[in-house]
Amino acid sequence: MMRQYELVERVRRYNPDTDEALLNRAYVYAMRAHGSQKRASGDPYFSHPLEVAAILTDLRLDDATIVAALLHDTIEDTATTRGEIDELFGKEIGALVEGLTKIKKLDLVSRQAAQAENLRKLLLAIAEDVRVLLVKLADRLHNMRTLHYVPEAKRNRISEETLEIYAPLAGRMGMQAIREELEELSFRQLSPEAYRTIVGRLESSRERHIKAIAEIEAQLTTKLADNGITAEVTGREKRPYSIWRKMERKTVGFEQLSDLIGFRVIVGELAECYRTLGIVHTTWPMVPGRFKDYISTPKQNGYRSLHTTVVGPGRQRVELQIRTRGMQDVAEYGIAAHALYKDGANAYELLTSDSQAYGWLRRTIELLAEGDSPEEFLEHTKLELFHDQVFCFTPKGRLIALPRRATPIDFAYAVHTDIGDTAVGCKIDGKISPLVSELQNGSEVEIITSEGATPPAAWESVVITGKARAAIRRATRAAIRAQYAGLGRKLVERAFERAGKPYEEPRVVASLHRLARTSLEDALAAVGRGELRANDVIKAVFPEWTEDVSVPQQQRRQPEPITEAGWFALARARSVKFKVPGHGAVSPAGPAIPIRGINGDLPVRFAPDGGAVPGDRIVGILTPGEGITIYPIQSPALKAFDDEPERWLDVRWDVDGQERHRFPARLRLTSLNEPGSLAQIAQVIGERDGNIDNVRMSRRSPDFTEVTIDIEVFDLKHLNAIIADLRAKSVVSSVERYNG
Predict the structure, then answer these.
(1) Domain range for residue 383?
(2) What is the C-alpha to C-alpha distance for residues 346 and 732, in angstroms, rounded to an integer?
(3) Is 180 a catalytic residue?
(4) Cβ contact 218:263 at 8 Å
(5) N or C: lower Cβ tally within 10 Å for the chain?
(6) Does the annotation mark 128 as catalytic?
(7) Residues 69-88: pLDDT tens digits?
(8) What is the pTM of this model?
(9) Residues 413 and 319 in one domain
(10) Do 491 and 529 have their domain in common?
């Protein structure tokens, strides 16, 4: 275990002005706090925070970050409090340690929800101070290095979390060295057989690779020197996990991979990067489509480099990365490279101001933290972290970086949420294209918008970015909520009218505390969903008012005259629509209440055991959390709701005669038990353009069979014609419509 003076010396190597007293005090405090605690390996627990601090000294981080690493488990795993940390080490270090502390008490059902809440807390802490992230990544790296000591049951879960969240997060911060090691350790645990196979293949070809690397290094160095460029050329085999991902992505075997070694060319100045590229391309043939310029268009994590692939010596493909020393520091250490000590510079200020990656992370966290459920937050975080990039342009030349496989919808939301919400079409490189097209590098995308448009809920399954998915969900929920509130407003207004009381919104707002609601829209939406009775709103405003329950139930639910109608996307995506003129008692003549739902999210359905068809006198029953069920007025099932008049909605058809829709009905037949009888029944229904949805048969006697048929018809007239034709058949003894 590293001694106290050794830690101080590691920091002094890159920071001669380090606060030795602070480091010594933190070392002693953490060692005493963890006391006799042991790790799964049997080592003293304090060895873990000490190793985390050592990893961070390799990144040349400031004193506060090293101290936070030493103390990062004290609040979570010992009796230490945040107040003690603040008092002994200052509030800056206290905030860092608090940000690294998991939420201890989570009243959540699923482990995924708990994981998501802890991740949300961590990311919000990172948004305040990115050094929290650096300590967390070092913490996870040491835990993965010692994973073999952890019980077998936990290893896969820890490795999956590392591969899905922490390795991509390190990559997004540009910390490639840590990312690659996290990926490698996770891959070895999750796919041991694949890992061993690839490692074995690499070992068997290592001698050949070493020879090729030496030859290419020598040729490249000489060629560049002949052109006046002093360069550091290094080659290496690709890592097993990188090879595995390429095999999966391209669906190829190991033998089919031709670029298992890569080279890095480090030059002195930016201009020499492009000169080197020209020399390479004039010396060896370039592989088409394999050149990328991340210097002129850096990645969001700040990574800058030129990438190309050429057919080098021995006709083998060679991948080359060309960059300056400064670019190399960022490529290896990412955001941590901004903490490298500069003359008089403050490491924290460099981290938070110089890093493009940190700016991206803060914007992403702000978007992710906008009220999603824990599971959605976790899903969106993974979406944001896990994709390679494609670069597109707005018509004005603004560069938009998106994940690969992104669509113009993702592009629209990346430009601005309002653009995404009102998008109705797009042009890609000047051509009208579908909004679900896959965007390519360099495309110019123009989004066509329409004022008042809203995003379809189906877009959620098409988009790639977490920002777009979250925005679509919010827009859909807001629209549904607004429609429930609209329905609730009409129901409340009618309830006040029936009660003979004036409906005045200021008085309702003043009474919301009696309804346990925080806003008028909340209360109205609750009424629309059936969670709150309209009469309860009256009682909240007029406590002295009492419901009149003396009116006979048959009078209370007398419906309006029927017209033919429709609004609601109902059964089987058919556009069935209703209008609701009143609620509860007899409705005066007047306009109908619109209660339109969005993609079925405000559900309206037909009653089981018979349904309803245009021409029936109908009533709607409001069920909290489920929506509205439409019954024909003659349905015996309505007796179950006699004592709940507040759930009754008088509804009427409003079907557009130009667009015909089918509706469910049920028939009960008694037929002769003879060959071909069912065929004759089906023939009658088919000839009348009815659609049989289901048939059930039961034998009641040797001579007769009872048949229940669920059919779909256009209206009551159509249904009665089918019934009349069936009665005329000799094989049919009787036929009646069934309404439950």
Answers:
(1) 356-475
(2) 93
(3) no
(4) no
(5) N
(6) no
(7) 999 999 988 999 999 999 99
(8) 0.55
(9) no
(10) yes
